[in-house]
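mind reviewing both lines:
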Amino acid sequence: MKTWSEVAEIQPLASRIITNSIIKDRISHAYLIQGARGTGKKTIALLLAKTVFCTNKTDSEPCLECNACKRIESGNHPDLHWIEPDPDRQSIRKEQIDHLQKEFNYSGMESNKKVYVISDADTLTMNAANRILKFLEEPGKETTAIMLTDNSQSIIPTIRSRCQIIDLKPLNPNAFRKQLIESGMSERDAWLMSALTNNLDDAFSWTADEWFAQSRKLMIQLIEMFSRNPNEIFLFVHNQWMPHFKDRKQQEQGLDLLLLAFKDILYFHIGKQEGMAVFQQDGDQIENLSMFFSQVQLLDILNKLLEAKRKLKQNVNPTLVMEQLAVQIQR
C-alpha cells in the first residue's frame, strides 16, 4: 500500500477518516492506530508521515517522489522519529521518551514539523507512558504523534482519550491465501501464512527462512511430546525451545504457532477442517492428536496460550511462562 487510495481498498474506514482530516487541514496532534498484525499499521503511519512532510502532495496523496517522501521511505528523514521497544528489556523505557522529548526541544531540521511514531505502544512502561501523556497534553503546534498497537487494552485510558483512535479491521485470510498461491507460494505454506500474517513480504520471507522452518518443526515436536513423551517436556523447553525462540517477538511467534496448531486439533474435532492452518495436509497426525486432546482440554489450552502471550507482553520471564504453560497443558 503506497497511496491512500490503495489503503482504502484494504482499510476503507481508516483511509476515509485520515484523508478527510488531511484535506480539511485538520490532522490530529495524536493518533492511536490499533489492529492485528498485518492489518497495515506501519504502512499507514509511514504514509501519514509522508503526507505531513511532502512538498508536492495532491489533495491527500503524497507525491512519493520528493526528497521528503524518499527519505521517509528509506528511514532517513531527520524530523521523523521512530520509537520501538528496547530489544533487551522488550519494552519502551522512560529514557527513550526522555531522549525523544529532548529532540523535540530543537527546531525541525528541514521544517517546523515533527512526527514521532511509537511502535508496539502497549509495551510502554508505566513511567514511559506517563512521560508520553505529558507530551500529549502539551503538543507542539507542528507535532504529530502516531502510536501503533495490536493490544489496545494495554494502553492506559488517559493516553487513549488524548488520541484520535483509528481501528483497523481484520483482513480476509481467504483472499490473502489466494493472493499468496497466485504469487507462487505452495498451498500448504499459504494456509499457514494466511493465518499468521496479512503482509505479502513477511509471508514469503518466512517461508524461505530456515529459522522459521525450524520453528514449525519445534512446534510440532512439542505438541506431539504432550501425547507421547510428557516426562521429557521440560528438558525440551530448556534445551531446544528457549534457545531457538530468543527474543520477545520470536517467543510470541512460537506461541502463535502453538495457538494455530491447537486450534487445528479443535477444528478437526468439530468437523471444520477447512479452517485448519497447520495440519491441513496431515490427516493421520491430526487424527492421532484429536484422540489425545478432548474439546474441553483444547478450549482450556487455547485460553492458557492467550494468557501466556499476555504475560510476555507484561515482561514476565519467558522461560517461566513456558514452564507454567507446559504444566497447564499437561493437567
Remarks:
- The CA atoms of residues 267 and 273 lie 6 Å apart.
- The two ends are 46 Å apart (CA to CA).
- The domain at 4-167 is CATH 3.40.50.300 (Rossmann fold).
- The chain has two domains: 4-167, 209-330.
